[in-house]
Specification:
The complex is a heterodimer of chains A (about 325) and B (about 325). By secondary structure, chain A is of the alpha/beta class. Chain A folds into 2 domains: about 10-190, Thiamin diphosphate (ThDP)-binding fold, Pyr/PP domains (Rossmann fold); about 205-330, Rossmann fold. In chain A, about 35% of the residues lie in helices and about 20% in strands. Chain A has helices at about 10-25, 50-55, 65-80, 95-100, 105-110, 140-145, 155-170, 180-185, 220-230, 250-260, 275-285, 310-315, 320-330; strands spanning about 5-10, 30-35, 60, 80-85, 120-125, 150, 175-180, 185-190, 205, 210-215, 235-240, 245, 265-270, 295-300. A 7-stranded mixed β-sheet of chain A has the order 3-2-4-5-7-6-12, with helices on both faces. In chain A, strands 9-11-10-13-14 form a 5-stranded mixed β-sheet, with helices on both faces. In chain A, strands 1-8 form a two-stranded antiparallel sheet. Chain B is about 50% helix and about 10% strand. The longest helix of chain B has 26 residues, at about 5-30. The relative contact order of chain B is 0.15. Chain B has about 325 residues and is α/β, with parallel strands linked by helices. Chain B folds into 2 domains: about 5-300, 3-Layer(aba) Sandwich (Rossmann fold); about 300-334. Classes of the chains: A alpha/beta (about 325), B alpha/beta (about 325). The interface between A and B is large, with 42 and 45 residues. Bound molecules: thiamine diphosphate and magnesium ion. Thiamine diphosphate sits at the interface of chains B and A.
């Protein structure tokens, strides 16, 4: 078989849409369900064209019932289908929380693998686009505390394709989180052919020797920009994109932190109980003695995600990441 | 009186015209990038205004979804002022001042329905007069919150009015994909409470239904579910393109029944309204909106407000974050 190495420049949104098309074509067990995913093609057009191509039996506009959407995905999976659920905004996963946390994530464990929760839950989230309440909250750490759920957070269009493909094919439940700001704001070269990025493999997107910025989702984009500008200041900063926080690529974290001896972890979520804390604890466990300075974190604040006018203060930006790196360089 | 008299109908029309006029201006402001996402009220005026005019503003609470604020003028000018702050994304947009019994917009669909039941229940525990009216859409009625709260309200005989505005759409989802029931009001049967469907384009019919539900609630007989059927004449929000899914024939048929036009014509025929009055009301409505917008824009915003009102007083973590924020603001000013 001849494989072409062709690539196309796509936005993250286009990459996601293309992946849904190809996975539905590849595996007829795949069904897509959610609010406005059919006729409207999703409120962001992520599911555009699916209903036309695959019909209303496989692409289902559901009532506004997140609990039933997530809960019925369990039943669909029990029936041997592969549900790909869209929760219109991650903040509305709260309505589905008892099904996601209390049922989906535990299904394999409590039935000792009699039932396989091959379920993907896609949801947009994240700040910077002035949405109404509950549309922007970064809830990944809340989900990371639920054993049995994988959490994937791509930062490029190519990864969105590679990771979503892996997520849909993964026999375990995957929460696939799509940064609102990246839908159209992130564009890169995406392989045309089948493209799989294994879940749990971090990506060292920029090499560096002095300090590593560890991040995920849209904050990787900002971290890359900061790392590049630091070159001009004589600081060699690496950037590690976790790509999935569960499973976490502990080896990649350890390796780069051991190499650089300094690290800054960047997240958009509130500071307390955020996933950055988990990274820092991991560094503490794995490579504490290689550190030359305390690990810093850049986070949102310990308040609910704010209204539009305060958003820019809340969401970490390049300035905050930059000064955290400088502080880390100075200390120790 | 279960039916609005002529004077009340004039006041209802005035509020409807104001809501429609201001909604148009707000849409334009959004298009110019001056305010955030807007959910237009067009087509919902009679249902909202008619309902609100049957309430006692001193004693009765209104818990809106997000499409209603421009129709709540009867509750006080501050509703609009606060709504403009909300549209700007100013934190003060969440604080409708005392003693106005109106809650801010609810983004999480259905979430206010249990709040309404609890509020009504609490009022009856405290022997306070009044009822709670909660607005929600046909789409929101599919949430578990609606079913759980409706059931609870029935059990408690809470003085609450569950007011479902069925505008035939939940973004792109038509009602036949929302429910297989004949009507949304028929769901009341499962709660053991009365359910009524009214023509939401007819403010007098809406008024009457709310009046009766209110009477029932205040006399200790418990909740009512009202479904007001209307048609969403505009987009879902400024972020939506309804031409992708709304059949144009359906829309034109609905435009024929436009509640603002219908009542205007009706009152004109009866010499209760005329073009001069119409112009006066529209001009004043625009001036009022612009004034509210200017005031909102000139409302100071302190960076500190990011950290305010999470708790009564900061945790030690929040104190650190607050001073970090202030330091960074200081740097930015340098
Ligand atoms: C819990 C929840 N799920 C999803 C959404 C996204 N959403 C916003 S408005 C809307 C449609 C609501 O329809 P309806 O209740 O009929 O009100 P309408 O907009 O028609 O007035 C949806 C799905 C939300 N805001 N909250
Ligand atoms: Mg609706």
């Amino acid at each position: 078989m001849q494989m072409s190495n062709k690539v196309s420049e796509l936005s993250m949104l286009e990459a996601i849409n293309e992946t849904l098309h190809s996975e539905m074509a590849r595996d007829e067990r795949v069904v897509v369900l959610g609010e406005d995913v059919g006729r409207n093609g999703g409120v962001f057009r992520a599911t555009e064209g699916l209903i036309e191509k695959f019909g209303e039996r496989r692409v289902v506009d559901t009532p506004i019932s997140e609990a039933a959407i997530a809960g019925s995905a369990v039943g669909l999976a029990m029936a041997g289908l592969v549900p790909v659920v869209e929760i219109q905004f991650l903040g509305f996963s709260y309505q589905a929380m008892h099904q996601i946390a209390g049922q989906i994530a535990r299904l394999r464990y409590r039935t000792q693998s009699r039932f396989e929760p091959q379920i993907t839950i896609r949801a947009p989230f994240g700040g910077g686009v002035r949405t109404p309440e509950l549309h922007s909250d970064s809830l990944e750490a809340q989900f990371a505390n639920i054993p049995g759920l994988k959490i994937v957070m791509p930062s490029t269009a190519a990864d969105a394709k590679g990771l979503l493909t892996s997520a849909i094919r993964d026999p375990d439940p995957v929460l696939f989180l799509e940064p609102l700001r990246g839908y159209r704001g992130i564009r890169d070269l995406v392989p045309d052919e089948d493209h799989l990025v294994p879940l749990g493999q971090a990506n060292l997107v920029k090499k560096g020797d002095d300090v590593v910025i560890i991040s995920w989702s849209y904050q990787v984009e900002l971290s890359k920009r900061v790392a590049e500008s630091l070159e001009g200041e004589g600081i060699s900063a690496a950037v590690l994109d976790l790509r999935s926080i569960v499973p976490l690529d502990i080896e990649a974290v350890t390796e780069i932190v051991s190499h650089c001896g300094r690290a800054v972890v960047v997240q958009e979520a509130p500071e307390t109980g955020g996933f950055a804390s988990e990274i820092i604890a991991t560094i503490n466990d794995e490579c504490f003695w290689s550190l030359e300075a305390p690990v810093a974190r850049v986070s949102g604040f310990d308040v609910p995600y704010p209204v539009g006018m305060l958003e820019n203060l809340y969401v970490p930006d390049e300035t905050r990441i930059h000064s955290a790196v400088l502080k880390t360089m100075e200390s120790g | 009186m279960p039916k609005p008299d002529d004077k009340q109908l004039q006041m209802i029309l005035e509020d409807m015209v104001i809501a429609r006029t201001q909604a148009g201006r707000l849409w334009n402001l959004q298009r110019q990038g001056q305010v955030g996402t807007i959910a237009p009220i067009d087509g919902h005026e009679a249902a909202i205004v008619g309902a609100v005019h049957a309430l006692e503003t001193e004693s009765d609470w209104v818990l809106p979804q997000y499409r209603e604020p421009l129709g709540l003028r009867r509750y006080g000018a501050e509703v609009l002022d606060t709504f403009m702050l909300y549209n700007l994304g100013h934190p003060a947009g969440g604080h409708i001042p005392e003693p106005i019994k109106v809650a801010p917009s609810q983004i999480s669909l259905g979430a206010s329905i249990p709040h309404a039941v609890g509020l009504a229940w609490g009022m009856s525990l405290k022997d306070e007069p009044g009822v709670v009216l909660v607005f929600f859409g046909d789409g929101a009625s599919s949430e578990g919150d609606f079913y759980e709260a409706g059931n609870l309200a029935g059990v408690l005989k809470a003085p609450v009015i569950l007011f479902c505005i069925n505008n035939q759409w939940a973004i792109s989802t038509p009602t036949h994909l929302q429910t297989a029931a004949d009507s949304f009001s028929s769901k009341a049967e499962a709660f053991g409470i009365p359910g009524v469907t009214v023509d939401g384009n007819d403010p007098a019919a809406v008024y009457e239904a709310v009046f009766n539900a209110r009477k029932r609630a205040t006399s200790g007989k418990g909740p009512t579910l009202i479904e007001a059927t209307v048609y969403r004449l505009g987009a879902h929000t400024t972020a939506d393109d309804p031409t992708r899914y709304v059949p144009s024939d359906d829309l034109s048929a609905a435009q024929e029944k436009d509640p603002v036009h219908t009542l205007t014509q009706d009152l004109k025929n009866r010499n209760l309204w005329n073009d001069t009055k119409q112009n006066e009301v529209e001009t004043a409505a625009l001036e009022r909106l612009d004034e509210a917008f200017e005031r909102a824009k000139n409302t100071p915003l302190l960076p500190n407000s990011l950290m305010d009102h999470c708790f009564v007083s900061d945790t030690s973590r929040q104190l650190r974050q607050r001073s970090m924020l202030m330091d960074s603001m200081g740097n930015a000013n340098e």
